[in-house]
Amino acid sequence: MEFTIDKNELLTGLHRVQGIVERRTAMPILANVLLEAKKGQLVITATDLEVGIRGSYPASVTKEGSITLPARNLHDIVREAPEGKVSFRKKENFWVEIISGKALFNIVGLSAEDYPTIANYKDKKFYEIKPQDLQEMISKTIFSVSNDETRYHLNGVFFEKPKKAGEMVRMVATDGHRLSLINKALDFSKELTFTRGVIIPRKGLTELKKLLEEEEGNYQIGFDTSNVIIKKEKVVLFIRLIDGEYPDYEQVIPSNNKKKITLNREKFLGCLKRVSLLSNERSKAIKFTIKPHLLEISTSNPELGEAKEEIEISYTGGALETGFNAKYFMDALNAMNTDQVTLELNDKLSPGILRGEGDSNYVCVVMPMRI
Predict the structure, then answer these.
(1) 195, 222, 249 — which closes off a domain?
(2) Would 323 disulfide with which of 112, 216, 237, 371, CB 3.0-4.6 Å?
């Protein structure tokens, strides 16, 4: 194997795989990236068996071949290399010589034959998708995904097809303490063939979000029984779906919260950030004291002290005291983009519903805490 490639092209490909390769694994080859030089291009592949990515980049190939090299070390070498071309030559016993300018490196790899195969996508049906639509849906739900590995079916976002004509595609995430839900009109929603929906794992969505943030290019999405596959021109991202039944999340969304508070999103977020500085590090517990036209946010921590701040609100109902996790509200408010938000409550034990004013397609539910 022998080829030459532009440094920036190679760096783009290696940067895309850094979040996927496993640093600590029982399979050492998963810490490597697969390089395949063929027909005027370099194909770069990485996988952790759950998420995989493959991209093709123009290269001058003198001799075709393949090798796997340590992904992190190779990325560091290329990043620090002089501008211009980088040359690779495979030697005996899986050693590879890398030359860039006057810099020379010899790095040892592993056989490409031992690298796991990536799912075949050639016969799958793909649908055009606007990157900003999918990016918004991920950004507004991913923070609610559970970190509890024993509840594996909650370790991803539920991508649900419309239940009936006229409804939109929905993405939902919950960790049992909070829930985020967004509806979006997608052109291909009528053609989805899965029964109810699919669960897309957090790591896959994180990598997909990075790819979507590049924005330039045409994006397509496809599904099979085990994977969701996203194509962006010569880059393909594979995400293995979580095999499990997503719970009936609709039953935890209150439908009778009668106390509705409207307030400025930025002021609300700033207030939460300041008061939560003295809250308990783990629980982030804060208290809402609600009165007509006024919301007081406070916290008391025996180890640090106390904090409170008042904020003007639009509310004319009765007084109410309730407790919440400040971080859950801050995550939701950061994901919103409206100037005003509405907080719906019923009593001190009822979940809080947070919506952007005028935005009926996005809702966050936060469970209360005993203060």
Answers:
(1) 249
(2) 371
Angle between helices 131-139 and 202-212 (to 10 degrees): 140
Task: List the Cα angle 364/368/369 in 5-degree steps.
Answer: 140
CATH code: domain of residue 344: 3.10.150.10
Quick: pLDDT tens for 338-367: 999 999 999 999 999 999 999 999 999 999
- Tell me whether residue 120 is in a domain: no
Instruction: Tell me how far CA of residue 344 lies from CA of 143, 351, 362, in angstroms.
Output: 21, 9, 14
Q: Which domain holds residue 6?
A: 2-114
**Parallel, antiparallel or unpaired: strands 51-58 and 41-47:** antiparallel
208 plus 285 within the same structural domain:
no
Which tens digit of pLDDT belongs to each residue from 275-321?
Answer: 999 999 989 999 999 999 999 999 999 999 999 999 999 998 999 99
